[in-house]
Amino acid sequence: MTVRDRLLAAAAELIAEKGWGAVSTRVLAERAGVGSGVVHYHFDSTQAVLVQASVGALREALSGLPALLESAADPESALDALLAALDEAGGQELFIETFLAATRNDELRAAVAGVLTEFRAALAVWLAERGVPTPAETAAVLAAAVDGVLLHRALDPELSRAVVVPVLARVLR
Amino acid sequence: MTVRDRLLAAAAELIAEKGWGAVSTRVLAERAGVGSGVVHYHFDSTQAVLVQASVGALREALSGLPALLESAADPESALDALLAALDEAGGQELFIETFLAATRNDELRAAVAGVLTEFRAALAVWLAERGVPTPAETAAVLAAAVDGVLLHRALDPELSRAVVVPVLARVLR
DNA sequence: GATCGTACTGGACGATCGTCCAAACCCGGC
DNA sequence: GCCGGGTTTGGACGATCGTCCAGTACGATC
Question: What count of other Cβ atoms lies within 10 Å of the Cβ of residue A46?
């Protein structure tokens, strides 16, 4: 892995661990195992590293989802697979932190909105094929609900997939 | 309003505006219109101000909710009123920031978990009275979904109550 | 082997951070 | 008028922040 990629990976870890506002140039370089000056050699600023790392993680986490939806037998197992995939992809807090940071950074906002729109569109098509009413609105609310579950689960581990999926599946009927 | 209360109000504003990690002693004092030293006269630390302010805002926002639920005619209008109440109470970002900070601060985590448990219990009773299946699980997922909607709405203003409520109401059937 | 360009290091710079504290302020009781 | 205690001020302290840059390391090219 190149130094540049190590910096991006370290940034994703640290955003989830410490919060967007607590990732500094030096802890970032230390986590990546490089000198502190190298951050500004590969990137314009520390903020730029955070933006690229979080958007990259978001894209990657959602890239496999269309295939994941198609391969699911029923809506419940699709929801379950969706939550499992987000679980695995670098900690729940990363995505929540990215969304919050996007409300305060126009460049990040545009990138996140783009990824989110794409995901909602794919989800809406899938919902429409299965006869769910108002697929576009349902997709938007479902995406929001999944993020909310990620946020609450960070506080309450009892909010497991087994609890969430049967309830959330009701919006698919 | 006392200086202490002005500091708490300023903290709630600034957490929502700039994010938990970007509220410093000096900007806090400036927003409250006082000297920078007064923060450590009334509070043990800057973090303590943020914790007290955010928990206070959370308690206040949820204190009126049992009455709000009882006065609602049907589940949809109850959901609508719930979202409207959270909208009004100091900006969507404050609660999300508080939840995220709670994952990294044990004292805050305990306080937030307490308020949340209380709210979910009241919501579960209300759901049970209306014959909703698995009321405790439904209440937990509904609370998470509402927070997720707050988060997504900060990015996408089109996610209005008119869009969200009909979809989310399906979990109540 | 000398040269060169890319990759990287570690320290310097001024700004800002949280915290602390001596001094000033305000105001009711003598 | 004076005094005493709660309240507030503004600056000092050392640590850390983001950014920048002179200097080093090293493989490719001649």
Answer: 17
Assign a CATH topology to domain B52-172. Answer: Tetracycline Repressor; domain 2 (1.10.357)
Q: Which residues contact A163 (CB under 8 A, 6 or more apart)?
A: B137, B140, B141
Chain A residues within 8 A of B104 when measuring between CB atoms: 18-19
Buried b / exposed e across A102-124, counting CB within 10 Å, b at 16+?
bbbbeebbebbeebbeebbebbb
Do residue A170 and residue B170 have CB atoms under 8 angstroms apart? yes
CA–C1' span, A5 to D22, in Å?
26
pLDDT tens-digit map of A104-148? 999 999 999 999 999 999 999 999 999 999 999 999 999 999 999
B positions 67-126 inside 8 Å of A (CB): 93, 96-97, 99-104, 109, 112-113, 116
Confirm if A147 and B144 have CB atoms less than 8 A apart: no
**pTM assigned to the model:** 0.95
Q: How far apart are CA A129 and CA A132, in angstroms?
A: 8
CATH class of A3-172: mainly alpha
- For chain A, domain boundaries: 3-172
Query: Which pLDDT tens digit goes with each residue over A80-112?
Result: 999 988 877 767 899 999 999 999 999 999 999
* Strand C at less than 7 A from CB of A2: yes
Q: How sure is the predictor about B70, in pLDDT bands with cuts at 50, 70 and 90?
A: confident
In order of A7, A101, B39, B113, the CA distances from B49 in angstroms are 34, 22, 8, 19
